[in-house]
Amino acid sequence: MDSSCLLASLHGSDTLLFADMQHRDPMLQKRDEFEDMLEERRNSSDLRYALRCYTPVLYKGVTPCTAGALKNMVLQSAQIHFVIGQVSNETGRAVDDVQEEASAILEEMAHSLQLSTVRFFAFTLSKVFKTLFRSICVNEEGIQRLQQAIQEHPVVLLPSHRSYMDFLLMSYILYTYDLALPVIAAGMDFMGMKFVGEMLRMSGAFFIRRSFGGDKLYWAVFSEYVKTMLKNGFAPVEFFLEGTRSRTSKSLTPKLGLLNIAMDPFLKGEVFDVHLVPVSISYERILEEALYARELLGVPKPKESTSGLFKARKVLSEDYGSIHVYFGQPVSVRRLSQGKVDRGQFNLTPRHIPKRPSEEIHSFVNDSAYGLVRAQEENMVLKPWVLLASLLLQNHHGDQASGRARGMALDELTEQAVWLRDLSRQYGAFLHWPDHVPPPEVVSSSLSLHRGLVTITEGRLLRQAVTVLSCVSYRNQALHVFLRPALLASAVHAASSSSGKRKTDIFNSFSFLRNMFSNEFILCPGATVQDFEEACFLLVKTGALQVSQQEVVVTERGHRTLAFLTSVLDPFLQGYQVRVRSRLRYTEVLSSDLQKNALAALLRLGAVRKIKGYVGFDHPRVPGEFDKAYEWG
Amino acid sequence: MSCLNFNVSHVLSQLNLCQYLPFHRQEIMKWNGWGYSDSRFLFNKKGQAEFTGKRYKLSGMIIPGLKEWFEGTFGANLQHKSPPILNSSAVRPPTLNEAFVEELKSTGVPFSHDAEDRVFRAYGHCVHEIFALREGRIGRVPDLVVWPNCHNDVVKIVELACKHNVCLIPYGGGTSVSSALECPSEETRSIVSLDTSQMNRILWIDEKNLTAHVEAGIVGQDLERLLNESGYCTGHEPDSMEFSSLGGWVATRASGMKKNIYGNIEDLVVHIKMVTPRGVIEKSCQGPRMSTGPDVHHFILGSEGTLGVVTEVTMKIRPMPEYQKYGSVVFPNFEQGVACLREVAKQVTPDFYLIFSSGHALKPQVSSIFTSFLDGLKKIYITKFKGFDPNRLCVATLLFEGNREKVLQHEKQVYDIAAKFGGLAAGEDNGQRGYMLTFVIAYLRDLGMDYYVMGESFETSVPWDRVLDICQNVKARIVHECKERGVQFTPLSTCRVTQTYDAGACVYFYFGFNYRGLSDPVHVYEQVEHAAREEILANGGSLSHHHGVGKLRKEWMSETVSNVGIGMLKSVKDYVDPNNIFGNRNLF
């Protein structure tokens, strides 16, 4: 943990393993150039584009398999046979009966990908995208890497999930670049929209129930279905690691079920490797912007319905800026698992008998999932607006605290934005700031795209809260950039003495904060030391801190950075305090997402306990300590 | 009865006049390559591949496709030669234990500390061993070679070795591919190579019980030939049978290609005699099976020279087969071929042997235009009419042995099953060719090494449901590792199923690559083989089906047999050989 080991662990090699990624200087990270794929759509016929010859190359040149043949393969697999026998034995039902159930489950689940539907979407989406977005930018090198990967290995696509749009967008891109169309795991709620549900099914979606806890048969059919598609290389399998759309633009802690299934064919030696491709989709303006904010404030999420979709047409008249889709480096599961998983553990039982994943595999999948979400985060494109939102919010909080309401002068905002631009670049943010344009123009054009949010007028709390939460969601896009330094800054801030602070104390605070926020942010379990080193490295690099063997000292010029960083975490800290006491300073604390995470964290830390649906304090010490350490004047 | 036995063995010893392997093997065999000195592949002045000598069916023939295959597969070039450096003078002088040598002299057992004799016995046939020899790099070699003539000679030698604390390394055919013969570099004592080649007699044949009692130094081809003269065979035919010895088979748990009919070595032995530092171990009777606690034979089988020297073995014999028939089947792809073999293993009583390969066959030039025309037609038929992809098709070669009627019946049964898996009968010639190739294939590696191509084969055994996956993954791993290590040309990475069992199969992998431009090709080779073995283990394959562990694979022994298993083996070693006289350090 001393600085010499910190420096020793820095290297710039371009490797696929994200374990290494956390050690090197984020500024050295190389990223591909973007191309706007809408440009061609604006200049040539959409109809011809939708009807053009489409001949993607598949894994090892396999021929695609019809949806019907695929279902047969699944139902005839050894695993399904085994589980059907098992269920029949346990329940006393006839084998035929169980068999039929399995077949019905598969019927409900399976996709029925049809090229004609895809062409229909290609045509209509071209029209829709052109009206909604200024550009859809894709890193073509990433596409080439993906193409290579699809031919060599079964591929899993792991896009970030911020909008309903994500999965149509993904298929649209792959179609455009003549890549194999993915099959996509979608939640059953889509099936509520009958017509649309079937359309999605025909464009490659397959549907899984949100919960099927103890249903062995369902799990078996589901996992065998995914594995059959994956290991035969019929199509890339796509799913969302985060499980659901993030309403806050903050990455959600990953769900492991599907990743487990996707890794299984490799771990059991059925394929040589599986490649996981994290895809970062960044929206300059999210279609569901206001919807999310309301949802977070407790207005129930509208049920997915076809008529609802039509009502949402009004969104079509607005300008949503641009989308950036970044296809990350394919991650080889083989390399990832090297030295972490003993594949020999599957040698002693037939592989078709389902088994709970071992502790070793569970933690491997978990670590990988966190790593992959971080890989998504790292390639999220941040627009200048994201920085502006962060600054405006901090200012807004200040205003609220002092009872003033004057907003911020434009030149002051610009100055701060430029400062923050440089800082975030130092921290490795993938910032798209047009350097050739004078900063004031950048700022004003960003503000104008989001005029719905920044012309704040005094109003009722709810209306204001919606606006604030929308801004928060933009600020959140940059959280991953500042998260680790901010945790360190807060830890430094909390340390009592003002001049020199003992490194061990700071590490302990850091560790406490990190642990507390592990439901809130993407913080890989067990990587506390690594994160601490990373944070130290960044703050030392930017001259904000001096770290010696024993002590941490804040430099003269470091105060501004530290103040900014502590403010980044401040609303979250307060949010967690609100759970403990009740006081309200930040409007965003009203977010149900934050409250849910805070409650989960308090439960985990043993501060509270669930009793018959009520929650009560278990241990008075933790809240006390909490106050003492993290109270600000 | 014993009288009768005596008579038979008497007759045999009359026949057994010539010495099959001379004391100085280097006189007829290569010391830095495979097999007989007079037999080798070479590219003649016209650039055609040719096999020299007179010993094999292929000898003296031109092999037309070999050059193209060789150049195409490895990117090798006949202009780029890498001939061996002939230099056996770099051998360090022997460290002799004078007292031991003095007493040995008085026993009259022949011995030598000539450099060539010692170097010859310092290596097996792993690629790194041969490569080092070709480069003239010679490491630690035995200090002395002794040639016991019978069991009692061995007893005397072992006693002397114990008395004078000398390290003994038994040496049979020298065909090891597990670094088993390498002298441990940390060994400071005088190392004595105990060459069993002179213990090569069949001591008796018992026709009532169909057994033969044989000295363990006899090599496979001599054993088979001698038995054939009396109308018998053992049916144990490992690919190395020209040179490998009975004692070596026992010490490594060998397997032969006809094992489906006759069984592996552990099924074939009835009685074993071994000399250890504690004395001689053997059973008291020749009962065909016993329930007398753990079978002590199994301490000996696979002991790889760590416990003692096998001196005499009683083996089962069978009358020579009345009828033999070769055959072959072409499958559209490897997957269907394997599925067929699995089915055959399920349905057919094992009365035939088969090896199974995907890929290329060496084919000698046939003079008759008519035959090649027919071959052409056959090829067109298979690829055009049957739609077989020539790059994916694979061939199974078959050999049926036994009573004529039964052979024909089994043949039909096998072909019927094959047809269900899309297999087409491809004639006896192909089958016979496959069989013939098993003996010359080992010579090919030396040809490769003349042109910067390094190759090796290794094997495993694996349950049926894993066969295809392990083949796919290990082959891919080899290609992947080569790429990672800067090998310029895509390596040859292929496999075949060579044995079938009720519960699984034996799979062979062939790996070869062009090493031009690599500074340390052997190191690259070793890393790739190591990775391939890890892949095998991760995919449910065994550490070895019949090559053994030696020193090459011993790092994986404890995960293979568990720590308790290693403890059991070690405690046997500690009891039998507390001073590590048999100090080759194989197994663990």
Strands of chain A, total number: 14
Rounded to an integer in angstroms, the radius of gyration calculated over CA atoms of chain A is 25 Å
Mean pLDDT of chain A: 81
Uncertain segments of chain A? 1-23, 456-463, 611-633
What is the alpha-carbon Rg of chain B in Å? 24 Å
Structural class estimated from helices and strands of chain B: alpha+beta
**Percent of residues in β-strands of chain A:** 5-15%
Q: Count of helices of chain A?
A: 28
Q: What oligomerization state is this entry in?
A: heterodimer
Name the beta content range of chain B.
15-25%
Separation of the first and last Cα atoms of chain A: 32 Å
Residue ranges of chain B: pLDDT <50 for 5 or more in a row?
1-19, 355-374
Q: For the report, how would you describe the main beta sheet of chain A?
A: 9 strands, mixed
> Overall 3D geometry of chain A?
globular
**Number of strand elements of chain B:** 21
Helix content of chain B: 25-40%
